[in-house]
Amino acid sequence: MSSISVWQRFETTISSSSVMSDQQQNRFTPTRYHSQHSIWTEDENEQLIQWLEDPVNLQKTKKGSRMSKKMIITKIAIQIPTKPVVKVSYKYDNLIKSYKAAAKLNDQSG
Question: Residue 68: phi, psi to the nearest 5?
Fold first, then answer.
């Protein structure tokens, strides 16, 4: 097993995938309109990640926990009142996907 934890690899994956060059940002800025709900602040991201880092909450996301995805997302959305439930759902799906990819990388040898 690697000395890098799954969460460290996950955070590295998230930060590298969400960084756009200045040229890319300038290209999109004039032509796109972003609503207040489409851009996640660092604090909102941190709240979601902290919720997922809690071992009890992480266990709720596993199969056999008897908690539906809708129930989990509703609990998270309560913690982040600035975002609608559907936006929390999209972000949750993306974070879980990235977490699983990081866990898979962390379990590989060599």
Answer: -75, 160
Q: Under a CB-based contact definition with an 8 Å cutoff, are residues 13 and 94 in contact?
A: no
DSSP tag of 106: H
| 92 neighbors 48 (Cβ within 8 angstroms) | yes
What pLDDT shows up at residue 26? 53
Whether residue 77 contacts residue 88, with contact meaning beta carbons closer than 8 Å, is answered with yes
**Proportion of the chain above pLDDT 90, given as a percent:** 35
Sign of the Cα pseudo-torsion (84, 81, 48, 17, in order): positive
For 68-102, the pLDDT digits (tens) are 999 999 999 999 999 999 999 999 999 889 988 98
| Region class of 56: left (phi > 0), else alpha (psi between -120 and 50), else beta | alpha
CA distance 50 to 80: 12
